[in-house]
Structure formats: structure tokens, C-alpha cells
Amino acid sequence: MIILFAILILLDLYVYYAIRSLVNIRYRNLFFYIFWTFSILTIAAILVFSLSGPEAMPKKFRTYLFAVIVAISFSKLVAATFFLVDDIRRLFQWIAGKVFFSNTEGSQISDATISRSAFLSWLGVAAGSSLFGSLIYGFSNKYNYVIKTVQIPFPNLPPAFKGFRIVHFSDVHAGSFTNKKAVAHGVDMINSVKADLAIFSGDLVNDRASEMDNYKDVFNKVRATYGVFSTLGNHDYGDYATWPYQGVTKAQNLENLKKIHAGMGWKLMMNEHTVLEKDGQQIALLGVENWGAKARFPKFGDLEKAHAGTEKYPFKILISHDPSHWDAKVRPEFPDIDLTLSGHTHGMQFGVDIPGFQWSPVEYIYKEWKGLYSEGKQKIYVNPGYGFIGYPGRVGILPEITVIELV
Question: Following DSSP, what letter does each residue of 312-357 receive, concatenated?
Fold first, then answer.
């Protein structure tokens, strides 16, 4: 905590003196009091948030407090980046004056104060303010569900499944919800699709199965002709929580979560496959537990086990939570898996998504992070998530209900 506060104070000092140079001298005292009042309040909020447990304050208040702290800190960091670029420019200018003009009348350049670039400084202020404004605005987008329809062609698709519609959603993270009515509206949107098959690709909760207590009667209403099939994500194993919790062990928590899937009428795919039949023709649906190639995400997925016995089916769909599974194992070892459906990335809940262009910082970590990707005959669709975690909002990357039509 001491190290964290030291870093924050140093960042505040740096940003303060950079912005102060832009402020009219008549208003600098006022700027001083405003800036440092907000800085002290931010540090106090971090202290309260860190030292108090989840039960010490209302969940909604705690969530937004955390989000505002993050928004303020990242905004200052972004602004400081521009100030740093300007300071590097000033440093090189000063060095050049010393080295190249030390014995000439130009030595005045090296000895004089080299002023900041007003352009870069204002650009830094604008960038930091824009980021802060976007993150605050993003609070209003967390339940702003959108339906995206994608047609995906496969030459080996059995004719009976032409036009087969799959509604795909992922990453519910029930522990983050605070508006049951809004969540239920999203489920109504899922059902409005009238899909043949519903797929949920993992992370039903943040940590604990009990997070679903208030939402089982919402998600048990998801309907599709061939049923609802689901799998587990990295958060579903409870790896990020302290156990036991309220008398429940980590192992019991996972079993409770499995029962919730079953109680809602969802078929949880645990390294297995099932066969879907239409007009006498068949395709295979495989589902594996979480398998992540990045960081230390769990590798519980057993694709060999799920795939065994599916060789005779001409078309295969795989549900696997983490899209890094696709490049690391699915494509190189199972070339007959035609379509993989994943989630996990959330599109980082921050980015740009406009026709013809999409970007998010998460693309520097995950090659496949949102939407449809193809390699040879194989394809993967990464859903950016239904819910949210950490930051209670979305900027640019909205919660998505994907409708996939096989053609």
C-alpha cells in the first residue's frame, strides 16, 4: 500500500506541475485546491476500498467506487504519457543546446528555460479528460445488449442444416449484476431470435455459485429448439476467491454450479460431445472445460476425450471458453472441427467497433478477441460477452448476443 500510494502521489505531482503551466496565473491557487482535493479523496477512497471487506459497503457502491478510482488513475496516466513525450523533447533540446551551442552566442538556448509545448500539454489534458469521460459514460452501456447476426458458410455442412441458427452468448458474470430487470430484458432478446440451438461459452459467475441465486429464474427462460448447451470458463472454478466461504468449499462450489446449469435446463458439456440430428442427417457438438494457452489459466479441457467417437460426423462445432485454445490446440491437432465458439476476452469492455474497423487493447494479448476469424477451412467466433467484471461498464465494445446462421 505504501508503494502504491507513493506511485500515485508522484504521478499526481507530475500531472499537477504539467497542467499548472497551462493555467492562468490568476487561477493557480484555485487550481491547486481543486486538484489536490480530488487527489486526496482518490487516495482516501483507495484506502477505504482496500481495507474494507465486500460486506462493509453496498455492492453497487463498492463497484462504482472501484470503477471511478480506476478511471481517474488511468486518465492521469494517459495524460502523463503526453507530458512525458514533451519532457523528453525538452531534454533533447536542452542537451543539443549544451553540446552544439556551448561556445557560441546560441548558448543562451541551453541556459534559458525551455518551455513546454502548449500543443502537447493540451493534447495530454484532452486525452486524459476524454478517457475519464468515456469510462464514466460507459457505465450506461453495461446492459445495452446488441444482437449481431453472422452468416458463416461451410461447404461440408449437411444440407438439412442449411440455415440452422445458433444463438451464442458468453461471460454472464452474475456476481457483477445489479439490475435484474435489465438482465431479464437481455434474455428476452435471446429468445426473440427463436434459434435452433443456444450456446453459452462459459464464466457464468465471477467466483461463487451463490451469485446465481437471484438470476436462476432469469436464465432458466433461455429457449432454443435443440436446447441450451454450456461449458465452464476460468472464473467458474472459483480460483480467484478465498475458500471456504460461508461454509462452502471450493470443490463444493463447483458442484453447486454444475447443479445450477442442470437446474436451469442447460446441458453442461464436460469434455464430451452430443449429436444433433435433423431430417436424418447429423452433426456433432463438442464441449470442453476451460483450456487457456495464456498466463496461468486452467487447462482442464480434454479435447481428445470430447472428440473421440465424432470422426464419422461430417460437421463439428466446439464450445471452448478461451479463444487461445483454437490456435494452440484445436487447429493444429483437430482440423476436422469446423466451428469453435468462445468468449473470455470481453473485448476488454473497451475499444472501437465500427463497420470495417475494430480495435481494443486486448488484441495485443489475444489474436482472436472479437468476431469471426478463419484459418483454412476452420473458423472461430469470439463473443465479447453478455456481462461485465471489474469495470461496471462498456466503452465501444457492447454486450453482444450473437446469431450465427450456418449456410
Answer: T-S-EEEE-S-THHIIIIIHHH-TT--EEEE--SGGGGBSEEETTE
Q: What are phi and psi of 209, to 5 degrees?
A: -60, -30
Q: Which of 397, 393, 394 is nearest to 347 (CA)?
A: 397
Q: Are 209 and 87 contained in the same domain?
A: no
Helix (H) or strand (E) holding 277: strand 272-278
Domains in the chain: how many in total?
2
Cα–Cα distance, 164 to 224 (Å, whole number): 12
The angle that helices 118-137 and 2-20 make with each other, rounded to 10 degrees, is 130
Give the mean pLDDT of 128-150: 95
The per-residue pLDDT for 111 is 44
| Distances in whole angstroms, Cα of residue 381 to Cα of each of 13, 120, 147, 265 | 45, 40, 14, 24
Q: Which of 139, 166, 191 is the last residue of a domain?
A: 139
Per-residue confidence band for 106, with pLDDT thresholds at 50, 70 and 90: very low
The three three-digit cell numbers of residue 42, written as one number: 482518490
Q: Is 363 helix (H, G, I), strand (E, B) or coil?
A: helix
Torsion of CA 388, 394, 396, 402, to 10 degrees: 30
- Looking at 106, 139, 172, the residue that finishes a domain is 139
